Amino acid sequence: MSHDEQRDALPEDLNAADHLGAYEFPDNSRRRRPAVIYWILAVVCLVLYLVAGDGGVLVNEGMLWAAVILGAVGLLSYTSGWRMKVDEKEALVAAQQSVGFAVGHASAQQVWRGLRSRPTWRVLVYSTEDPPRRRGLVLVDAVDGTVGEHLVEDNLE
N or C, which terminus of the chain has less Cβ within 10 Å? Predict the structure, then answer.
């Protein structure tokens, strides 16, 4: 293989360079779909165990354990499928209101917090001066829009 050949490429939906318009972050409630699949597989494993009984080669106590584990993973997946009601623009507004200075440049990044992966916007803001004299980091809950934590400090650059 020569050095001129392209070996790896981004899928079209992840290529931001060719994307025009606003990017829409995917909603975390999509996690509920695999949860339903896990539960269906858990029911299948449980029915096989109950019908065929224990002690077989293909159906044994492992099938019961698989049903329990799949059920638990399905429950975790379903309950971490938060519906996001706050987009990045609303998070930027909430961040600007919490830092106490006029915001110039800002950026928002979606992150997840806690065991159940609650979606949160991590917003970095800079004041309007050139160069900015203040900066802040604000965490905005993507489910209900509350500001969880914020840090404001002088920009030493």
Answer: N
